[in-house]
Amino acid sequence: MTRQGPLAQRLSAAVRSATAVETSGIEPIPADEREGGPGSSFTLWFSSNVQFSSLTSGMLATAAFGLGWAQALLAIMLGAAVGAAAIGVTSTFGPPKGVGLLVQTRLPLGRRGAALPAVLVFFKACAWFAVNSILGAFAVRTLLGTGFGPAFALVTVAQVAIALVGYGFIHLVQKAMALVLPLLFVGVSLYGYTESDLGSGFDPAKAGPLGFVGAFALVMAIQAARALSFSSYAADYTRYMPVDTPPGRLFLYAFTGTWLGSVWIASLGAAIGTLAFIGTPTDLVGQVLPGALATVTMLALGISTITSSCLDCYSGALAWLIAGVRMARWQAVLVVGGLGSAIGWFAGQGDYWKSFENFLIVLGNWIAPWLAVMLVQRFLVTSPDAEAPRNFGPGFAAWLLGLLAAVPFMSQPGVFVGPIAERHPALGACAAAVAFLTAGLVHYALARRTRTGATPRTGTPRTDSPEEIPA
C-alpha cells in the first residue's frame, strides 16, 4: 500500500470533507465547523455566470433591442457591475452570523414579514431551475442525439444530486468548473468574436419606441437583474466561512467572479446576436457554429447549466425552510427539484423566448427594494444587540412601498405596462431603481423612529425550529 505525501493527504481530506452530505439546515453554523476562504466566492460566482442564460441575455441587446456591439458591451459592463456589487456586498453577510441572508431578513421585516420574501425566493429558485433545466436539456439533446425527455431527466437529476450533497460539494464542483468551462468556451468565443459584426451600429427599427436611451437602459436593467436574482443566495455560500473573514476581500472576490463571468459570456452573446437570433442551444449548431466546435460548445453549455442551477436548488430549499416549512434540508431540495422540473417540462414544450425578457426584469422589481432594506439595516440602522420583531418590522412596510412606487415604471409588454412607462417607454427600465431608492429611504426613516434598543439574547436558542433561529 502506497503512503500518501502531506499534500496528497490534505487534498484527500479536503475532497472527503467536500463530498460528505451536509447535515445542517438554516441554523447558525458553529465556529468549530467554519472553514474556507474568500477565494472560493470567486470560483463559485464565475462558474455560475458562465452559462447559456448569460449568453441569451447579452443576445437580447443586439438581436432584439438593436444596440451595436460596442454599445451593448458598455451597457452589459455597467449593468453587470450593479448586479456584481449586490452579490459582493451580500456575500459579506454570511460569516458574521453564520446564517443565510433570508434568515437575517427577519431583523428588518419581522419574523412573519420575512416569510413572504422567503416564499418568493423559493418560487424564483424553482423558476430558474426550470429555465436552466430546459437550456441544459436542449444542449444535451443536441450533444447525445436523444429526445427531450431523457436529456431533461439527465440534467435535472445531476442538478438535484449536487444540491443534495450540499455546501462543500457545490464549492468543490464550482472550483473545478472555473478551470474547465473557460477551456470549453474558448473556441466558441474566438469564433463568435471573429465572425460577428463587432462594428455594427444602432438599429432604430429593432429598438422601436424605446429609442437608443431606452434600449441601452433596458440592457443594463436586464444584466443587473440577472445578477441581482442571485444576491438573495449569496450569504448561503459564505455562512461556513470563519467569522473573521475579511469583508473587503470577500466582496472583491465575489464581485470580480460575477462581473468577469457575466461580461465575458453576455458580450459573446451580443456578438452572436449580430449574426443570428438564437432561441435555444440547438440553434447555435444550425445557424452559427461549425461541426466540431458545436460539439464542444454543447458540452460546455450542458455542464454550465447544471453547475448554475444546483445553486437554485440548494438555496431554494433553504428559502423553503425559512418560510416556515418543517422538513429536513434534503427533503426541501427534492421539493425544489420536483417543482422546478415540472415547470421546466411543460415550459420546454413551448417557446423559450416568449417570457425570458419579462422574467429577468420582474426578478429585479421585487428583489431591488428588499436588497435596499437589507443594506440600510446592515450599514445604517442595526444595533449590535438588536432582536427581530415577532410579527412585522418597519422594513416590511418599506419593502412594500418600494414595490408600489415602482409600479408606474414597470414595463412587461403583454403582462403589464405602467402609466409612466407607457407614456415614456425609455423610463420602463427604471422600475428596479425606483423601488430600490424608495425602499431604502423609507426604511431608514421608519427604522430610526421605531428603534428602541432590543434586549440581548441570553441563552442558547433552539436550532430545530425556524422560529427560534436568531436573526
Q: Strands, helices and their partners?
A:
Blueprint (H helix, E strand, L loop, with lengths): L5 H14 L19 H11 L2 H13 L4 H23 L2 H4 L3 H4 L1 H4 L5 H30 L3 H18 L1 H29 L8 H4 L3 H21 L15 H26 L8 H7 L3 H32 L6 H19 L8 H26 L12 H13 L4 E2 L3 E2 L1 H5 L7 H20 L21
Antiparallel strand pairs: 1-2
Short description:
The protein has helices spanning 6-19, 39-49, 52-64, 69-91, 94-97, 101-104, 106-109, 115-144, 148-165, 167-195, 204-207, 211-231, 247-272, 281-287, 291-322, 329-347, 356-381, 394-406, 419-423, 431-450; strands at 411-412, 416-417.
The arrangement of helices and strands along the chain is HHHHHHHHHHHHHHHHHHEEHH
Question: What fraction strand?
Answer: under 5%
What is the CATH H-level superfamily of the domain at 35-353? Hydantoin permease
Structural class: mainly alpha
User: What's the pLDDT, averaged over the residues?
Assistant: 85
| Sheet having the most strands | 2 strands, antiparallel
SS element count, helices: 20
- CATH architecture level-2 label of the domain at 35-353: Orthogonal Bundle
Question: What global shape is seen?
Answer: globular
- CATH class (first level) name of the domain at 35-353: Mainly Alpha
C-alpha Rg, in Å? 22 Å
CATH topology term of the domain at 35-353: Hydantoin permease
Strand order of the biggest β-sheet? 1-2
As a percent range, the share of helical residues equals 55-70%
Distance, first to last CA: 50 Å
By DSSP, the count of extended strands is 2
Low-pLDDT stretches: 452-468
